Structures are given as C-alpha cells and as structure tokens.
Amino acid sequence: MNGVLWSAIQKVGSIAITFFANVILARLLTPADFGCIGMLMIFISLSNTFIDGGFGSALIQKKNPTRTDYSTIFYWNILLSIVLYGILYVSAPVISTFYKIPLLEDVLKVQGLVLIVNAFGIIQANQLRKQLDFKKISVVEIAAAMISLALAVLAAWRGLGVWSLIIQQISLSTFRTLFYWIMSKWRPIMTFSCKSFKDLFNFGGFILLSNLIGTLSNEIQGLFVGKMFSSSLLGYYTQSYRLEGSMATIISGIIDQVTFPVMAAIHEDKMMLIRTLKRFVQIPAFVCAPIMGLSIVIARPLITLIFGDQWGQCIPYFQILCSAGLAVCLQGASNNSISAIGMSKVLFKWTLFKRSATIIFCVGGILLAGMYGLLWACALGAWFVYVVNAYLVEKYIGYSLLEQVKDVLPFVSLATVVGCIVFYVGTLCSCNEYATALVQVVLYTFLYVFSAFILKFEIAKYLLNVIVKNKK
To answer: What are φ and ψ of residue 269, in 5° steps?
Structure first.
C-alpha cells in the first residue's frame, strides 16, 4: 500500500500536469493540430513497445538479475531504438502520403527522436520499480512533466502550432531520462551477454508480442479515424480519449505500476497472490466506477469548461468512452497477475485472440455506423478484454470469474444508482450549467461515500484505515 500511495502521487501529479497542459494547449491550438499528433501516435507507441520489448517485465519477474543482465538489455534497447528511428525516418514520406498531409513527414522525423531518448532511461526506471521505490519515480515523472508543460505552453503562445506538442513530447522524454540517471545509482558495464539475452527473451519475448498487440489494438482507432475521416475529427476523438483516459488510467496506472513487481515477488504463494489480487481488483473498482459515472453526468459542462465551446463535439465521444472506463481500470491487475506467475506464452496467445477481436469490432463498428459505431465498438472491446482476463485469472490463479464479478458489481450498481439520482437533480436545477455541475459533483461524492459506509463496503473501511495510518 505504501507503493500504491507513492504511485498515486506520481500518477495524479503527472496526469494533473498533463491535463492542465491540455486545457491550455486546447485553447491555443486547433483540433487539427491535435489530430496530426494523433495520426502518428500509433507508430511512436508501437516503436516504444518494441524498445521496452518485454525485457523490463522479464527483469522484474527474474528473482536476482545480474549487472550483466541489466547491461545487456540496456545496450539492446539503445541499438533497437536507433534502428526503429531509422525505419520511421525513411517511412515518414510514405506515412504523410498515406494521410495526405505533407507536414506529417517533418513532424514524424523529429517526433521519432523520443525513441532514442527513452531507451537511455528504461533500465533505471525498471530498477526503481523492482525495488518498489515509487517515491523517486514520483519525483522524476512530476518534475519532467512540469518542465515539458512550461516549454509547450511557451511554444504554443509563440505561435508554433503543432510543433509545440512535439516540443512537449521531446522535452518530457529528455528530462525524464536525465532525472532517472540522477536518481538511480546503476550504471551500465561494458558487456553484452547472448546467454543473458536469450534467457530473458524466453519470458520477455512473449510479453513483447502481447504488448505489441495490445498497443496496436489501443492505437489503431486513431489510424482508422485519421484515414477515413478528417484530422479535425481525429482531434476531437483524441481529446475525448485523453480526457477519459486520464480519469481511467489515473486509477489503473497507480495499481498497475505496483501490481506486477509485488505479485512477481509473491507468485509462489497462491493464497497470498489471490488475496493481493482481490485488493487490486476492489480498489480500482471502488474508485473508478463513481468517477466514470460522474463524468458521464457532467460531460457537457466539463468539456466546455476545460477545452472551450469549440470542442463541444467531444461530448458524446467522451460519454461513450467513459462507459468502458471501468473495464480499462480492471484489465491491468489481472493481466499482470498472469505475467507474474510466468505464463507469458499463455498471455500472448490470449492477447492475440482478444485484441484481434477488438480490432474486428472496430472495423465492424465503422462500417455499420461510422464514428459512433467505432466508439461503441471500443467500449464493447474494452469489456470483452476484461472478461477474457478475468477468465484467465480463474483458470491459472484460482480467483473465480463469479467471485471477481461479485467483488466489482456492488460498486458499479451503487455508482449507477447515484448517477441516475444526481442526473435527475440536475434537471431540476434552474442555475447555469457550471453551477449545476458543481452541485452534482458534491452531491454525487457525498451520496456515494455515505452509501458505501452505510452498506458496509469492506474496501471503503480498508482504504480509510490506510489513509489514517499513513497520516500518522
């Protein structure tokens, strides 16, 4: 729980800064500017996944990795990042022609540099995670996010347009890597072991493939929207996705960052693993369900207040994506638990199945109902992935699917009932929409927390005890 709290500080801080940056930049830039970056994110995300390659997970899962293990992967990451950047650089003209936007060629050539910069800091971050030193990770991530925010806002204010977003990404990667080198005492030694690489690849290779498929599934929507619709429409989608994602991943990111190293350390004790996983399912469900419910209720004033009236088209997109926010929150813990017990090959096979299905959902959604079909397909796909993950947990860990549903359903039910009450109250208010939204936020929070204690939700009492103990 100490790791969770420090992870929470890091995630909340970083996402709050990123959120604040989006608020400012959305008022200085156009939807088309955000759309340009959204078109390229699939290539950058896939490349970053290649570089990490699952070796980070392999190093955490291995009980006592050596200096040779770490150095081998460090040099591999750098070499691969250079190769991938070269591929992106050469492919940039083809990608810009594919989207029919010439500016993307230069943007991708510069944006791709983040791959090389990130590669230099992966091992340092990995070691801090393995040591559960989330305090240092918090300092690094928040400091780098603040600096990159300041530089991006300055660039946007000076009229640099889409390049201000590139400056934000590159400066974030640069300062993050620099700070990880300062915080971590580890330094590479001049060695590369083929044996070490092979041993780590036996586990990490399947994690790599699983992560690649997952990244492709998550980012391919942007590819579809960018190609089949317009850059402005992709900008609306990107902002909706980011806003919903910042709310969903602020919970799942906190939990996921801690779950894998913790469960990897206790994976031989099945009963301990189940008890720990149960907590890692209940906590995000208890917190995320009301956040998603409230976000749907106050979507209109939330979007217009944050981004401005010109982003009003985001509202229904955002509401549909929020319907899957809880599923996204719950996917990580179960996924990490399967990795922690060393079942990377099984995880890969099932990831191939579930992610292929979600891509089929997306294609079918677009063909049937255009943009809205895609959004509902994304929501359906997120819940489908959650169910598959829950099934795997039942099969390989022993935490039954029915028990997982029982651990989540009370929070979903309460969040839904409270959401309906608060929505109805909002229809009765005669004040402006922002004042009404404030009333709804306060009322929703009070009713949800009060009801949780009245209904004697054990997880509510548990979290309260943790907070009180840490304050002391």
So the answer is: -100, 95
| Mean pLDDT for all residues in the chain | 80
Residue 261 near residue 335, CB atoms below 8 Å:
no
Instruction: Provide mean pLDDT across the span 137-152.
Output: 85
Which amino acid is it at 334? S
In this predicted model, what pLDDT tens digit does every residue of 118-137 receive, in sequence order? 888 888 887 887 776 677 88
Give the CA-trace dihedral at 13, 14, 16, 18, to 10 degrees. 160
3-class secondary-structure state, position 32: helix
- What are the tens digits of pLDDT across the range 287-305? 889 999 999 999 888 888 7
Euclidean distance between CA atoms 58 and 260, whole angstroms: 11
CB 184 within 8 A of CB 124: yes
* Secondary structure class of 100 (helix, strand, coil): coil
Using left for φ > 0, alpha for ψ between -120 and 50, and beta otherwise, residue 432 falls in: beta
DSSP string, 254-267: HHHHHHHHHHHHHT
Q: What is the dihedral of CA 317, 303, 257, 404, to 10 degrees?
A: -50
Residue 389 tokens read as: 């993950």
Query: What distance in Å separates the CA atoms of residue 438 and residue 117, rounded to the nearest whole number?
Result: 42
Query: Smallest Cα–Cα separation from 53: which of 204, 261, 264?
Result: 204
